[in-house]
Specification:
Blueprint (H helix, E strand, L loop, with lengths): L1 E8 L3 H8 L13 E5 L5 E7 L5 E12 L3 E8 L4 E11 L5 E11 L2 H31 L6 H7 L4 H7 L2
Antiparallel strand pairs: 1-7, 2-3, 3-4, 4-5, 5-6, 6-7
Helix pairs in contact: 2-3
């Protein structure tokens, strides 16, 4: 199963890659959906993914490939290797000096529970999470996004500006 999202970002590939090259910054892009447990130690990091309905998965992420400034790939394991996948950031230059960033999550092997979760709406939730991460990356790099990760991720939600303008 593969889920992907893409977004144009008004920044050069080098600037985008410089941000993404530090794996500990990635959790900032998902706010409360991704909780850091162990910082990147040069080999791997550990995070807890907070899904819908209180579902939580502890993930180990290893840097698998790095091709500056265009591609970064991480290997993801959950459930002691029962679920294995990858996360790929691809940065393509656009003709106007900006970039198109694509974020892909691919499940290569899924434990029975994870297969069920993906089929029962988890794939849609994952796609929304990828879109949210790209929006937060855009906000961080091009719109001067500041504040904690939860605030950035909330600001980056589609329609968030419209809801804030409408008031309570």
């Amino acid at each position: 199963m593969e889920v992907r999202a893409a977004r144009p970002i008004a920044a050069a590939p080098e600037a985008i890659f410089a941000f993404l090259a530090n794996p500990d910054r990635h959790w900032q892009l998902l706010g409360r959906r991704l909780e850091p447990l162990r910082a990147y130690d040069g080999e791997r990091s550990q995070v807890r993914l907070h899904g819908p309905l209180g579902i939580r998965r502890t993930l180990w992420i290893r840097l698998a490939a790095e091709r500056p400034p265009h591609e970064l790939v991480g290997r993801v394991e959950a459930g002691r290797g029962a679920t294995i996948g990858s996360v790929r950031w691809t940065v393509r230059p656009a003709t106007d000096g900006s970039s198109v960033v694509e974020l892909t999550a691919r499940t290569e092997l899924a434990a029975p529970l994870d297969r069920l979760l993906l089929a029962a709406g988890g794939a849609r939730w994952l796609r929304q999470s990828l879109e949210r991460a790209l929006a937060a990356l855009d906000l961080t790099l091009t719109r001067g996004g500041r504040g904690d990760s939860a605030c950035l991720a909330e600001q980056a939600q589609p329609g968030a500006r419209d809801r804030r303008a409408e008031g309570p």
